Task: structure prediction
Amino acid sequence: MEPVEEESKLSDQKLSVRQKRPLFTFKSGNTYLGEWVGDKPDGFGVKTFASGSRYEGDFKNGLMHGSGKKYFKPGDMYEGDWKDDEMAGRGVYRWAN
Result:
C-alpha cells in the first residue's frame, strides 16, 4: 500500500511546482507564454487575446491576479492591481487619445 501512497504524493508535488512552458494556444485563439502550476497559468506570464489585447503580469490559478499591465486594442492601457481577471485596487488607466 505504501508505494501507491508515495506515488500519489509525488504526483501532487509535480502539480504544485511552477514551471515555464512554451507558447500555448487555447481553443479560443488566446495565447499564453509564462509560468504554470499544473494545467493553469500561475506566476508571471503574457496572455495575448484573440481580440488583439495583451496582458503582461501575474496570474493565479489561471486568472489575471496581482500586478500587471493590459494593453487594449484601441490603444488604451491599464497598469495596476488585478483580482480574478478584474481591475481591482490601485492602478492607472490611460486612454489612447
Summary: The chain has one domain: 18-94. Residues 44 and 77 are 18 Å apart (CA to CA).
